[in-house]
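Sequence only, no structure available. Ideas?
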Amino acid sequence: MNLKKWMAPLMAIVVLVSGAVAILSYLSEDPVAQSLVISEVSGDVSVAGREGSSATVGVGALLEPDQRLITGPASRAVLSLGEDTRIRLGSDSTVQVRGHDSTAVTLELEDGALQATVRPGSSALRVGSRGRQILATDATFDMGVGPDGTLVVEMSEGSAVTSGFEGMNGPLAQGSRTTVSPDGQASVTPISEELLLAVQWPTERRTKEKVTQVTGTTVPGAQVNIYAGERLIQVIADHHGIFQASLPLEEGENPLRVEATDPLGREATVSGWTVELDHQGPTFRGGVDYEKGAAPL
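Reply:
I predicted one. Tokens follow.
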């Protein structure tokens, strides 16, 4: 009887002690960092290590700190973090893992563009470029880096906290497009479905000059390809989105075409204008031919 009398309290004490030990053990352990897994690949996708060597990578590979994920032309890759967070890397893009722990994954977008969907069930996602970063815990956004270092972030869902964005007050809001110049100056506009591209063609359709001028406006940091026939001039739109180029002409007709690609990879094309280089004939302006030395009315 005495043994039975003491058995129940003893068992209760054992259960309490076991529970306390389990709780203390849980509280003393750091949360486990989720793996950054390559879940989809298409085309030429490789991983480069700290020493610089690279190797083709496939689905299921882990991306570790200091490694770079690189996509070639017309290639894609998707990174998974937990069950619901996805980072989609576009073609001709490079992203480096700068940090990875239980609280956040930090990525550096060195070239190209990515799209990220971040959900609360995973670590937070911090993505940056050249000292400019955003931190998201529940959001969907696109980020791209232009050839001159211009950074563009479009928030299609949720919001994100910024650092290194000069002139920014508060987080990036849903529906906003933020453009950050290489010196860190930021400007915010609404997201547009189409890429702006407005071109001012030369006023003369027939000329004796071997060079003609093309100017226009697009988004800041966009790469602009300007063609005169098969001849190509490449320029980068400035922080106001303005571009200009001097195009060499060939004898005869020179069809002009302008193509713009913004840091997110969106494209726009304007064409339909022709300039004729004619050393023999009169100059044509405004629908009227003028002989050499004659002045327009």
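Residues 1-31, 286-297 have pLDDT under 50 and may be disordered.
Hope that gets you unstuck.
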